[in-house]
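Minutes, project check-in
Item: structure for the 445-residue chain
Input as provided by the requester:
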Amino acid sequence: MNDSGDRLAGEGRIRCASLPESLKVAGIVLVPLMMQGVLQRRPWAVSLLARLDVDRWGNRVLRRLRRRHGGSSVLVNLLGRRMVVLLSPGDVHRVLEGSPQPFTLDNREKHASLSQFEPHGVLISTGPVREARRAYNEEILDTAHPVHRLGETIGAVVREEAGVLLGNARAAGGVVTWPLFAESFWRTVRRVVLGDAARDDVEVTGELSRLRADANWSYLRRPRPRVREAMMRRIRTYVGQGQAGCLAALVAATPAGPDVDPVGQMTQWLFAFDGAGTASFRLMALLATHPEQERRADADRTGQLDYLRACVLDCLRLWPTTLVVLRDGTEPIRWGTVTVPAGTAFAAPSSFLHRDEELLPYAHRFAPEIWLDGTADDNWSLIPFSGGPGVCPGRNLVLLVTSVLLAELRREHRFTLRSRPALTPQRPLPYMLNHGAIRLGLAPR
């Protein structure tokens, strides 16, 4: 086998895929991605594609494509839409660090979807307006700080709801299922973002879920302004209440410029927590089946949250909740010997990059240590929260909530995996894991 330098000899170049290659990328990589639902997962599709192990086939296609083109990323043409599929960490680095210019986050497909429920969101904003909205998001979410200024209050909310979840699980025969976990997690999220009064307001997150399901169809589904306005009225009500200790209170108290639309930013915060819940539940299954990591998570109470943060990050590496990171070129871009026209899409397929067995010796195993020992630092194959100037501004808040939740659930209880597939350190982990089918047994320590 060649070394990584030989395998990526074409890094920094773009080759044009043939028509058969483009059709294979579309059929085996992109169609399954869209079937799952980019913004709202379709349970039936996730279940089916996990059984078929579709990501394994998609990764094989992209790996062979990279080899065939000398290690370079490839330009595919799909029904007149040009897309560069980024297949090397160096190329991912160039695009993500080059955002928002000349690689805008306001990708055409992303805009068509997100505009249906967050038309003023920072992810589809450009120019000075984007800068103002990004700065506002970072201020409210405390992007630069590992622990949010409301960390103590948020921690208390997370621990309280974890206790309720454990009580409900005991009442259900000592079994934690995805519906039980998701119900509890969304109660936590509503309290963190909107305040205690929103704890049981399933309508506000239900309306968001319906809008996201429609947005999965991008151009093919008309927006539903009445549903969005009903959701926004609810969110504005909670901001108006200004209950202390939640993000809504910070929004109410923080001045914003005329183009920011502070309340309009909050739908993205709710949306972003969805993947955190999925990752947390998958991680519970991983820790239940990986004794070494389980012991480490329980051994050092002083460093427990740091280790659990690393566990969450590696779970997001193994099974990304952002299936593809998208940018569009705003101008013609010279790339090696090729000039890529303005308007071309650039796609970083995270499920391939995170499991690139030719570059990552830990590709198919649970390896939280890489997020602690420097291995993951500056590795542009690993983008669980995107990267560069467009990195998720809520990264630290999400990691705080999930690590505190997992620490509290494990404080006096152990979990066992009672569903398939079996997860074990002795075998490569599956490319896909249907979180909806996970069943965890609960027992006191």
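Outcome recorded: The radius of gyration is 21 Å.
No further action items on this chain.
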